[in-house]
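Pipeline run #58 for the internal structure catalog. This entry was flagged by the ingest filter as a single-chain record with no existing model, so it goes straight to prediction. Upstream metadata was stripped on purpose; only the residue string is passed forward. Reviewer on rotation: M.T. Logging verbosity set to normal.
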Amino acid sequence: MWPERIRPARIRARMFTVVAVLAVAVAGVVGAGVTATAAPVVCAPPVVSVAGTQQYEGSGGGTKTITLTVTMAPPAAGCPATGTVRYRTLDGTAVAGQDYTATTSTLTWTEPGLRVVPVQIARDDAYEPDERFTVELFGARGVTVAEATAVATVIDDDAGASHPDLVTSIPESGICWWPGDKCVIPVRLNTIAQAPVAVSVHTVDGTAVAGKDYAPVKKEILTIPAGADHVDLPVGLLAGAQPGMYFGVELADVTAGTIGVGSAKVTIRQG
């Protein structure tokens, strides 16, 4: 019989053997096709942000719309892209009821992407400094707000001490070289655009007839982008076009400033 002092060592040895056998058994079960369950995905709320913008005020009275965008970024794979957030306008140098119409509402997402915040601003013909108001996001449900505020700048487009009136024009007369497939008529601003300027353009018959001698432009909206001072209008020439014929181009309904030279005669010349 073993002395008492040796028994604990034997007990520990037996316990080690049992643990080793269990480890082998578990390894056999896993090897037989039973795998551990993956940890569930932990989803953070999707992130939304509002971005600022700027736009010309416009002339002639009434109102026009300035639009800010609120974007939901794509969430992690397997996570929902749903939620809501409220927005409201706050005065800056622009005053609600005078320069713009105060507004508040809710934006809703069922997938990532853009939502718009439309705000009505007042059009007038009086010179004044550029004005600003803020759009603020609040009351988020199911989303995290990264950029909660953004500034909308209303750019004055009327003549004043520091700058001239914003004017859109076309050349009073133009030449289109024949033979060729198109005429290019520039639509110009008198300065570099600080925000997009849109204008309606259409052609009118002269001795050249639409559909026979040239491809008519019935009512096309051209936009001069921010940072540019012109945009080109291409007018296609057709089989009937001959040197000496002419047609007209007219501008209407500019979204900012005024129209200077609003009509032009374009003559087809032999090159």
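catalog note: The mean pLDDT is 87.
catalog note: The radius of gyration is 35 Å.
status: ready for reviewer M.T.
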